[in-house]
């Protein structure tokens, strides 16, 4: 499990042990955990609480890719429980991680456990397949900008704050001045730009057009509704997805043992195994025939020696 500095928690331990009792590493499955509100860079907040960041998430993916290259895992599952996070650094990091996964050829799945919204949705799109349980919160494909002004409160308190700026738009809005029409236009433009980015990334990874996802208006859907709309690939919990990944990892091992490509179907594996059994049977028969022939040769030599002696 690649979960960050607090990976020793009971929930993560459960994931590491897996639903079948064996370790995830032993089962050929790596698990990346993304949890909580997300920042550009991981940090410790109040009371030493860890706040996850895109740099730390990328580092976990890097570790998982190295484990894949070393043959320690053959599948990677990302478990996400996050309402989202900041825009800064989000798309560049997610795209870079996706490129690394493609180059290494790592099979990936992501699952909501059970929040996967906004920036967290962006990270889910790094994986090939997406899943969520029926009651999950999924989507929020859009962006939001929130600003506050306490100018009215300051005026009631009889306090005056003046702002001196070198340019008309420097630090607008400031939070201590009334909002202007230009402030509203600029803040809305920021939100629209962020929405365009996440909609385009979703279209790139899930198909369709950017406008299809902008038309969702940033709504949050249940897992059931997300599946109906084609936003995810199925309704499964985190443990169910990890179990499925473990089963697929076992099949990967069988394919490798049979010298079959990763795309080989179960039917192909059965056929190859049957051919292998037939080849082993033929080899066994051939060895038995060889042993019989050798025994006959030895008997003939012994008989010839006796006849010479007589």
Structure description:
This protein is of the alpha/beta class. The protein has ten helices and nine strands. Strands 1, 4, 5, 6, 7, 8 and 9 form a seven-stranded mixed beta sheet that branches. A two-stranded antiparallel ribbon has the order 2-3. Helix 2 runs parallel beside helix 3.
Please state the average pLDDT score. Answer: 85
Give the overall shape.
Answer: elongated
Discrete helix count: 10
- Total beta strands: 9
For the sheet with most strands, the description reads: 7 strands, mixed
Order of helices and strands: HEEEHEHEHEEHHHEHEHH
Radius of gyration: 30 Å
Helix and strand topology:
Layout: H1 10-17, E1 29-35, E2 43-44, E3 50-51, H2 54-69, E4 75-82, H3 90-104, E5 108-117, H4 119-124, E6 129-132, E7 137-139, H5 151-156, H6 181-206, H7 210-214, E8 220-222, H8 223-228, E9 234-235, H9 238-257, H10 266-309
Parallel strand pairs: 1-4, 4-5, 5-6, 5-7, 6-9
Antiparallel strand pairs: 2-3, 7-8
Give a summary of the structure in a few sentences:
The protein has 310 residues and is an alpha/beta fold. 49% of the residues lie in helices and 13% in strands.
């Amino acid at each position: 499990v690649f979960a960050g500095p607090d990976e020793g928690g009971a929930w993560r331990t459960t994931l590491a042990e897996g639903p079948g009792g064996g370790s995830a590493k032993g089962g050929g499955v790596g698990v990346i955990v993304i949890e909580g509100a997300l920042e550009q860079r991981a940090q410790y907040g109040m009371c030493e609480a860890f706040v996850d960041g895109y740099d730390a998430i990328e580092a976990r993916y890097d570790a998982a890719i190295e484990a894949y290259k070393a043959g320690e895992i053959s599948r990677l599952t990302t478990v996400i429980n996050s309402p989202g996070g900041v825009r800064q650094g989000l798309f560049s990091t997610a795209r870079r991680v996706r490129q690394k996964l493609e180059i290494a050829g790592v099979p990936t799945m992501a699952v909501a456990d059970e929040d996967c919204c906004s920036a967290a949705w962006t990270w889910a799109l790094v994986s090939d397949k997406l899943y969520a349980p029926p009651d999950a919160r999924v989507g929020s494909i859009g962006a939001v900008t929130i600003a506050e002004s306490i100018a009215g409160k300051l005026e009631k308190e009889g306090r005056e704050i003046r702002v001196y700026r070198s340019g008309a738009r420097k630090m607008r809005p400031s939070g201590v001045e009334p909002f202007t029409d230009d402030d509203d236009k600029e803040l809305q433009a920021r939100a629209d730009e962020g929405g365009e980015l996440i909609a385009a990334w979703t279209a790139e990874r899930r198909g369709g057009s950017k406008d299809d996802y902008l038309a969702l208006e940033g709504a949050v859907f249940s897992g059931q509704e997300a599946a109906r709309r084609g936003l995810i690939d199925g309704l499964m919990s985190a443990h169910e997805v990890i179990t499925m990944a473990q089963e697929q990892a076992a099949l990967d091992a069988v394919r490798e043992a049979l010298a079959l490509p990763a795309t080989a179907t179960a039917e192909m594996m059965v056929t190859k195994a049957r051919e292998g059994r037939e080849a082993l049977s033929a080899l066994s028969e051939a060895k038995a025939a060889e042993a019989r022939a050798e025994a006959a040769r030895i008997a003939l030599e012994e008989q010839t020696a006796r006849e010479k002696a007589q």
